[in-house]
Write a structure and sequence with these properties.
This protein is mainly alpha-helical. Helices cover about 85% and strands about 0% of the residues.
Amino acid sequence: MLGSEDITNCLLFKINITRNTRLRGIGLIGMVAAMTEKKALNPAEF
């Protein structure tokens, strides 16, 4: 039998993983958007 503490720890762990991946995904999208914006503004730099 799993204790209620084990279950809550597991849930918190899963929530942290999903939150981190979501933040990382947003960061990647933001980086790509910034890169493409820079390319559009300064094509000579690339």
